[in-house]
Design brief:
Belongs to the archaeal Rpo3/eukaryotic RPB3 RNA polymerase subunit family. This protein is α+β, with helices and mostly antiparallel strands and 323 residues long. The protein contains 6 helices and 14 strands. It has a 4-stranded antiparallel β-sheet with strand order 1-2-14-11. A 4-stranded antiparallel β-sheet has the order 3-10-5-7, with helices on one face. Strands 4-8 form a two-stranded antiparallel sheet. A hairpin with a 3-residue loop joins strand 1 and strand 2. Helix 2 packs across helix 6. The radius of gyration is 28 Å and the shape is elongated.
């Protein structure tokens, strides 16, 4: 087919480039140049499903008289992004005991007074409990053994805020204004929410990105010069203003491709009789425009760096298996 799909390591190293186009606190746009589509898609899938993060998994409800059912309330809490580095915590299994290394505990107690207006419960009312759960664990002999210290749902040996990472940066929801519930007069919610480490392939609430997607770089080529009235018509045909008018002297005008990156390949520029002779639309097969939007646990550039490390580990395991 006239396309060289072979892969040579030296050529790959020489041609690979990463160019950051836009970087903010929550998202990044960058160009991955010199890679195959399979690698670009591998990064995308790792970002969505295999990068760990922290999310609320278990909700202990002491009182809920709101109109929201317990299951729906727990689901809404699980989807609240938490501003905490998952690399500082360990995974927890079914047989593990919740402790300060694998569990983060929040409490929520909101009440709407009788006779007052309706109130809105937002995510900033989730308060971090660095010493673990405050709900007592029910046991068979708790009544007879009141002198001894009763156990809670977690077994913290030390306070989490004693760690230098959290002493000046307490754990909290990333966004304080996420609506959890609305309470009418006399209604109340009291609960504890236990957050653990997980991955997006288990449940979407553990996905560290709101979106991670890419597109190939569009290539817009003028097959022949487009001048005069034809040039103005071409500029007006494009809805995203890919083309511009260039002055060639003596009152002459010529169209040029000014913003090929903005092209959405809508094909408006080649609609109509004869326009395919003037404009060709293509894609650069080894140039990908990547966009990653973080949910808040880690900065977007750190997420991509961690995705590269995971892909590297996968490749090393394959090499080990083959050898």
């Amino acid at each position: 087919m006239g396309v060289d799909n072979s892969l040579r390591l030296d050529d790959f190293r020489k041609n690979l480039r990463v160019e950051v186009v836009r970087l903010t606190e929550d998202d990044i746009e960058f160009d991955l140049i010199g890679i195959d589509a399979s690698l670009a898609n591998a990064f995308r899938r790792i970002l969505i499903a295999e990068l760990p993060t922290i999310a609320i998994e278990k909700v202990l409800i002491a009182n809920n008289t709101s109109v929201i059912q317990d299951e729906v309330l727990a689901h809404r809490l699980g989807l609240i992004p938490l501003q905490v580095d998952p690399r500082l915590f360990e995974y927890i299994s079914e047989n593990d005991i919740p402790n300060e290394k694998n569990t983060i505990v929040f409490k929520l107690h909101a009440r709407c007074e009788k006779g007052g207006p309706r109130s809105t419960v937002k995510s900033d009312e989730l308060k971090w409990l660095p010493n673990g759960s405050e709900f007592l664990l029910a046991t068979e002999n708790s009544a007879s053994n009141t002198a001894s210290k009763q156990k809670t749902y977690t077994s913290f040996s030390s306070s989490q805020d004693s760690l230098p990472e959290f002493s000046n940066n307490p754990i909290a929801p990333k966004y304080p204004d996420i609506i959890i519930a609305k309470l009418g007069p006399g209604q109340e919610i009291e609960l504890e929410a236990h957050a653990v480490k997980g991955m997006g392939k288990t449940h979407a609430k553990w996905s560290p990105v709101a979106t991670a997607w890419y597109r190939m770089l569009p290539e817009v080529v003028l097959l022949q010069e487009v001048k005069g009235v034809k040039a103005e018509e071409l500029v007006n045909k494009c809805p995203v203003k890919v083309f511009d008018i260039e002055d060639i002297g003596k009152g002459g005008k010529r169209a040029n491709v000014a913003r090929p990156r903005s092209c959405t390949l809508c094909r408006e520029c080649i609609r109509g009789d004869g326009w395919e002779k003037f404009v060709a639309l293509r894609r650069v097969k080894d140039h990908f425009i990547f966009t990653v939007e973080s949910t808040g646990a880690l900065p977007p550039e750190v997420l991509f760096t961690e995705a590269v490390k995971i892909l590297e580990d996968k490749c090393e395991r394959v090499i080990t298996e083959l050898s």
